[in-house]
Amino acid sequence: MKVLIYGSGAREHALAWKIKQSPLLEKLYLCKPNDGFSELGEVLESENFTELAEISREKEIDLLVAGPEDPLVNGIVDEFKKVGIPAIGPGKDWAMLEGSKSFAKKFMQRNNIPTASYEIITDIKDVYNVLEKFTVPVVLKADGLAAGKGVHIANTRLDAERTLEEFLQGKFNEASQKVVVEEFLEGPELSLIALWDGNNLLPFIPARDYKKLEEGDKGPNTGGMGSYCPVSLDLKEYQELEQYIKKLETALKNEKADFTGVVYSGLIMTKEGLKVLEYNMRFGDPEIQPLLMHLDSDLLEIFAMAVNKELDKAGLKWKSGQTFCVVAAAQGYPQSPEKGGEIKNIEEIIKDHDVTVFFAGVKKQDGKLFANGGRVLSICQTGPCAQKYIYDALSELDFCDKVYRKDIGEVSLSKEVCRKNEKCCDSCGF
Ligand code: AMP
Ligand code: GLY
User: Which residue is closest in CA terms to ligand 2's atom 5?
Assistant: First the structure.
């Protein structure tokens, strides 16, 4: 197969890394890769989806894998469909499950999918009446895409009123002219990524990402500072997840969701049970980095089965243990990341610490690597003592501005695995 991956982050690097391992791959093409992985394929330059689809047709590309949400919402898959190229990703219509929070809420309501109670507001005159229906904390969500910044948890009524007014006055332009006001939920969060082929849903193992900048889940929200998979669940949580997967599959079937792609459910395990916080229609970043390292199956074969509506026959094989990913971000992230810091010893780190690194905000100049964005590197490892390998690599990484969290993952599992290997235990200190 000839495959085109669209997107520039560590997620797309991980997809390219995994797809390159498939014996089904004839040639890999990349559109907008960052300098850290552009050498994995032939780069196609195009700013326009119609033109890109036409170039892809000429090159006889068999499959588009669309990475981020913006191109999906803006119709990249629809343009590829016009020239007969299938995609992993929905058209504009179903991208709305991510592109509009109110669309997603209505989908959940129609299909009896448990979620926070909510109101939709478009008129600044209704701020007082709508907020009267909620206690604080209360959650405010810009309806449209706002680059991960459109959710605000207001701890006081005054904060809620001010923020809601700011949103409705166009803080995120059109995206916040409609706002979902939502009940605040509490509990551990889970990311459930699943592939949908128009008929069948194929769930991945559950993953967790760490959205807050600082250890102990403090500080501002980010795109994700780390992740791991699988998440250990107790029996009750596992059963609730199974039930939810069935419910989601039935909902997509009932609604005749006619696309091949990802349905990512942002879940929260509350005292009253599992509820859905949001849908994304693409692989989660940074969740997909450890998930693809943990996956023992041929991803391209699974994608081909999805395109042929055969996911009911597909099975996913996973490695044992857990896989972890820690993000190294630039100083100042997420508000105003500093660009230009040199990353000096990445090759040595990879070799000495046996970690896999996926690049995000990086740029190469005169053979040197520089930070060029907020999240810069995803450092991943699987198996016994994975966290130790990652953190040793990070402490030796010569990128002086780096910011990272030191509490990614479940230590308990490392302990259990380490007990089986004395040498490993010594080095871990467990
Ligand atoms: P979303 O983009 O809807 O996933 O929101 C981003 C993050 O905001 C989530 O991962 C949660 O941590 C938090 N969040 C969203 N909705 C709620 C809610 N109803 N209650 C509590 N936290 C929420
Ligand atoms: N990790 C959250 C996201 O991809 O939106």
Answer: 284
